[in-house]
């Protein structure tokens, strides 16, 4: 029986590989020329500036497709969170099931990250990096689904990852910086806030790090899709690998940086040398 099953599996794989190789050879030989709505240069430029292929927002304003993606991802995440809170959390038990264990591991990962980088004030930053990390991860994966929208020019456009737009990346960087800044003022007063303000380049660096990483993947994927010789099978591998790697890496990098800078902002100020000498003289 085992030999028969193995033989069937081998035949099945060989047949599928033969079909894939045959189709790939046909694409490379024939070329399948088709009409292009825009040149590759225009495609790459629009991927950076988003000055074309804009989408109407309820007929009120023409916006970048990335904004529609941001609204969609935010709505989906909030809806899922509501469902988990209403239906799943009340059923959590001391001995967790698979779903409860997965949720606890996810929350525990960001909690441990916050505790290790910000041991003085952990609660708020743990909640923030959890929400920011989940948003970055799933908003990056959003482009894999290939949801379509109709542009103002009447053409079909694929909704990109929200953070592939520089405005979305800047919004994430500035919001993270404001969280760190407010924490510095709230915990250590004016000195803590001024210490954070010294790192004014932080939101810019975080924003361009996210934007550059996601944009590079977008550009590579656009190049692969644009040319017919590469548009068969290769985009599946390239898109999935680039998107998954960017989702994991950028989530970890952003949450780590935020927790580290937050920990520095809320760290109690070290006692000055004069206070140390005064305490030593009092003790002696």
Task: Explain what the structure shows.
By secondary structure, the chain is mostly helical. It has one domain. Helix content is about 70%, strand content about 5%. The chain is built from 9 helices and 4 strands; from the N terminus they run ααββαααββαααα. The strands form 2 sheets. Strands 1-2 form a two-stranded antiparallel ribbon. α2 runs antiparallel to α7, α4 crosses α8 and α7 packs antiparallel against α8.
Which keywords apply here?
single chain, mainly alpha, two-stranded antiparallel sheet, 9 helices
Summarize the structure.
With 284 residues, the chain is mainly α.
Number of helices: 9
* Secondary-structure-derived class: mainly alpha
- Binned, the helix content reads over 70%
Shape: globular
Regions with little confidence, pLDDT below 50 for 5+ residues: none
Query: For the largest beta sheet, what order do the strands appear in spatially?
Result: 1-2
How many extended strands? 4
Oligomer kind:
single chain
Helix and strand pattern: HHEEHHHEEHHHH
Q: N- to C-terminal separation?
A: 87 Å
Number of separate domains: 1
Describe the largest sheet: 2 strands, antiparallel
Q: What is the typical, i.e. mean, pLDDT?
A: 78
**Beta-strand residue fraction:** under 5%
């Amino acid at each position: 029986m085992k030999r028969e099953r193995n033989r069937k599996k081998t035949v099945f794989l060989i047949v599928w590989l033969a079909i894939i190789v045959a189709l790939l050879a046909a694409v490379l030989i024939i070329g399948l020329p088709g009409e292009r709505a825009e040149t590759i240069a225009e495609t790459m430029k629009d991927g950076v500036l988003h000055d074309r292929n804009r989408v109407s927002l309820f007929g009120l304003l023409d916006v970048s497709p990335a904004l529609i993606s941001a609204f969609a991802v935010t709505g989906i995440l909030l809806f899922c969170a509501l469902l988990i809170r209403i239906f799943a959390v009340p059923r959590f038990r001391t001995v967790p099931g698979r779903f409860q264990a997965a949720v606890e591991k996810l929350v525990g990962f960001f909690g441990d990250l916050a505790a290790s980088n910000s041991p003085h004030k952990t609660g708020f930053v743990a909640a923030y990096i959890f929400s920011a990390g989940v948003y970055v991860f799933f908003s990056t994966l959003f482009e894999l689904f290939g949801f379509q929208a109709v542009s103002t020019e009447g053409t079909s456009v694929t909704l990109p990852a929200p953070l592939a737009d520089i405005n979305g990346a800047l919004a994430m960087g500035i919001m993270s910086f404001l969280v760190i800044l407010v924490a510095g003022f709230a915990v250590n007063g004016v000195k803590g806030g001024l210490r954070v303000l010294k790192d004014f380049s932080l939101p810019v660096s975080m924003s361009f790090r996210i934007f550059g990483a996601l944009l590079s993947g977008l550009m590579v994927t656009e190049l692969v899709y644009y040319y017919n010789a590469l548009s068969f099978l290769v985009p599946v591998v390239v898109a999935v690998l680039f998107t998954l790697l960017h989702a994991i890496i950028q989530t970890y990098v952003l949450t780590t940086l935020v927790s580290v800078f937050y920990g520095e902002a809320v760290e109690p100020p070290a006692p000055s040398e004069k206070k140390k000498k005064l305490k030593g003289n009092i003790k002696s």
